[in-house]
Prior knowledge:
- By secondary structure, the protein is α+β, with helices and mostly antiparallel strands.
- The protein is 45% helix and 29% strand.
- Helix 1 (3-14) crosses helix 2 (18-37).
- The longest helix is centred in the N-terminal third of the chain and has 20 residues, at 18-37.
Amino acid sequence: MNKQNFVKRLSTNTGASQAQSKEFLDIFLDTVTEVLAEGEDVNFVGFGKFSVAERAERKGRNPQDGSEIILPASKLPKFKAGKSLKDAVNES
């Protein structure tokens, strides 16, 4: 499902217009992004937890010539599904 289809379903489920649903979804996604960028977690009990993991600097290989390169340290977003979400997915 892409964003447009999700907005249509959100609009149908809430009774809000598609424009309102899209605006709400955009605000939600922007807010989660901001909180994660600040280094905080976003936890929805039962649904899941968004967090940020830190990846240390490490050695890698250039796939073109096989030479060793240093990959810089980085941060990456993670999501861990909660029990209710796991149970709902496994029931279907």
